[in-house]
What we know:
With 127 residues, this protein is mostly beta strands. The chain has one helix and eleven strands; from the N terminus they run βββββββββαββ. The strands form two sheets. Strands 2, 4, 5, 6, 9, 10 and 11 form a seven-stranded mixed sheet that branches. Strands 1-3-8-7 form a four-stranded antiparallel sheet, with no helix packed on it. The radius of gyration is 13 Å and the shape is globular.
Amino acid sequence: EVQPVESGGGSVQAGGLLRLSCAASGSNGDDYVIGWFRQAPGKEREGVLCISSGDDSTNYADSVKGRFTISSDNAENTVYLQVTGLKPEDTAVYSCAAPLGTKISPYTAGFFEYDYWGQGTQVTVSS
């Protein structure tokens, strides 16, 4: 099973760029799917992007298209989330998660059925 581990959060200025990493620990060379989620203060958690390491297929939530990019480095078993043009409303705890499946399904594309979660990393954007 894949155990995701996030890194790279912190405090950034509005308009800046941020890259978060999610190490897919335990993948053992197998394909995996990683989804990125965020939970802003006082709001429900929302799924933002996901990627399949096997074919690099991706799915983006409509709310983040244009500023958020997901990519994977299969040699490092790591998935990256890059955000440009950061806004104060991007302030949230960002988490990555993995489902049991190895390819994006209609459920995981819709950010459901993720089974293994990282601890989350705080991103704070100041104006």
